[in-house]
């Protein structure tokens, strides 16, 4: 398949571009609109006021990618049709076409490279094993984005196979994309939706999509001072997404603001004929979408639980003081903070191996089904992928990072074992997190970072990560988690907290060295 890869810039061209970039900060259009850090609402207003076109916006992001991506490695591949999509959006806006009224119309969006697009781009999960494969159709979430006129800017880097290949590979690394870097620290971005978070944080794109099985939206969002929504499993379609676990996989937005994330979520949520899980979960989608829950007083009357077992930093540390200040803010905004709660079976949950066993079995079955459904592919099964890696050890850095997780999944067998593991996780969730929420009449729990991700993952529960602070320049987030279908409450809580604190700031401008 034809593709436009983001690599191979010469040092000379890069240096010239960087100097140009530094000379003209902050970046604006000719009509005075500053694109950097702009929200979806701001971009749409600029469109309406003739301060900006979708073409200009795409060209801006192309330039930023050309300048910053050789170091940050947040973008894996650009869509060669992005500018033509932008021109179409500009024409539809002038003609006042019905679809131009959508908040995402004419807005560029970056997709994690496990989300299929039926176009000139690849969908590889970061592996050379899937390079050149042909998908049968757009992923369900991509079809919804195209329907409202969003511009598919390209594919984001990720931890290869959504960090389900090797325990020793760095988080944020893939064979195709290299090692993505946190734009704040140039250190780890956390994975597996690393490139999605890197790119929105560094203003390489307006908004992005990631996916989470256990922590892969919440963790990179926190590490890169972004907002990430991990939806209830089934709220958004996983059809056309390279899978790990159909029981836990979910697709969600990674953006710079809660309002942007809510607008993306309401666009991609809902029924998809190709994903049975969306049938049951569609009952959770509110009429009128999620933007209606962007309320500054959204914390008023909410009951928020604090489980201190997840606050491992000691008193007197910056992080401890920061979260104590956040609890005070939550109370000042009208929330009831129920402190010192306990999940009765927490030790059992954290030491239980059911998730690992179930994911190994589910990965093999789900990946085999995904690969067999491809129109064309160099690999057709997990066995083929493992064999490909062995055949191309240098290409996939096999000797350095291995493929121990895939080998585990290849060997594990038994539908009976899978059923037992799933039942056990259901029991742990009901007697743990759900009991905590119901007994204490909570609207959400509030936890630091992505430390709660496994609790949310095994039960298919939603969570939202919002920027919470910086320690020596390194961002960290705060996560609000709730029961299935509680996204409206979580959006209210997250937005109210965000507006009360306004913590996010863009990455520092530094001299990037290739």
Automatic annotation (TrEMBL):
<dbReference type="Pfam" id="PF01425">
    <property type="entry name" value="Amidase"/>
</dbReference>
<dbReference type="InterPro" id="IPR023631">
    <property type="entry name" value="Amidase_dom"/>
</dbReference>
<feature type="domain" description="Amidase">
    <location>
        <begin position="56"/>
        <end position="449"/>
    </location>
</feature>
<dbReference type="InterPro" id="IPR036928">
    <property type="entry name" value="AS_sf"/>
</dbReference>
<protein>
    <recommendedName>
        <fullName>Amidase domain-containing protein</fullName>
    </recommendedName>
</protein>
């Amino acid at each position: 398949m034809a593709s436009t890869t983001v690599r191979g810039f010469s040092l000379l061209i890069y240096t010239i571009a960087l100097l140009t970039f530094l000379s003209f900060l902050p970046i604006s259009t000719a009509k005075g609109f500053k694109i950097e850090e702009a929200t979806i609402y701001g971009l749409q207003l600029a469109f309406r006021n003739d301060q900006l076109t979708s073409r200009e916006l795409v060209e801006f992001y192309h330039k930023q990618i050309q300048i910053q991506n050789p170091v940050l490695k947040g973008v894996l591949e650009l869509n060669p049709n992005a500018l033509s999509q932008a021109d179409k959006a500009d024409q539809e806006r002038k003609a006042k076409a019905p679809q131009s009224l959508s908040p995402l119309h004419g807005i560029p969006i970056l997709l994690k490279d496990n989300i299929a697009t039926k176009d000139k781009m690849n969908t590889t999960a970061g592996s050379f094993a899937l390079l050149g494969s042909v998908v049968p159709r757009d992923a369900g979430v991509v079809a919804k984005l195209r329907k409202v006129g969003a511009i598919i800017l390209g594919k984001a880097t990720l931890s290869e196979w959504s960090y389900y290949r090797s325990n020793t590979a760095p988080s944020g690394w893939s064979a195709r994309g290299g090692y993505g870097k946190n734009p704040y620290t140039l250190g780890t971005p956390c994975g597996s939706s690393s490139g999605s978070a890197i790119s929105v944080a560094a203003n390489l794109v307006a908004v992005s999509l990631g996916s989470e099985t256990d922590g892969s939206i919440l963790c990179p969002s926190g590490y890169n001072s972004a907002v990430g929504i991990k939806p209830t499993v089934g709220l958004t379609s996983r059809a056309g997404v390279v899978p790990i676990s159909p029981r836990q996989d979910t697709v969600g937005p990674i953006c710079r603001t809660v309002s942007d994330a809510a607008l993306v979520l309401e666009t991609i949520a809902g029924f998809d004929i190709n994903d049975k899980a969306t049938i049951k979960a569609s009952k959770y989608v509110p009429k009128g979408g999620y933007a209606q829950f962007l309320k500054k007083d959204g914390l008023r009357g909410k009951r928020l639980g604090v489980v201190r077992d997840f606050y491992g930093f000691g008193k007197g540390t910056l992080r401890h003081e920061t979260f104590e200040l956040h609890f005070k803010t939550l109370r000042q905004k009208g929330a009831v903070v129920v402190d010192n709660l306990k999940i009765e079976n927490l030790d059992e949950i954290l030491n239980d191996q059911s998730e690992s066993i179930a994911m190994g079995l589910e990965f093999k079955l789900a990946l085999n089904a995904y690969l067999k459904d491809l129109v064309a592919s160099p690999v057709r099964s997990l066995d083929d992928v493992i064999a490909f890696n062995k055949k191309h050890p240098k290409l996939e850095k096999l000797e350095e990072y291995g493929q121990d997780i895939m080998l585990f999944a290849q060997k594990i067998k038994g539908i009976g074992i899978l059923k037992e593991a799933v039942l056990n996780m259901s029991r742990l969730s009901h007697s743990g997190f759900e009991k905590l929420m119901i007994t204490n009449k909570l609207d959400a729990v509030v936890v630091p970072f992505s430390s709660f991700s496994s609790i949310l993952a095994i039960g298919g529960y939603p969570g939202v990560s919002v920027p919470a602070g910086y320690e020596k320049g390194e961002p960290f987030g705060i996560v609000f988690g709730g029961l299935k279908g509680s996204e409206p409450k979580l959006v209210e809580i997250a937005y109210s907290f965000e507006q009360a604190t306004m913590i996010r700031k863009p990455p520092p401008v530094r001299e990037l060295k290739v």
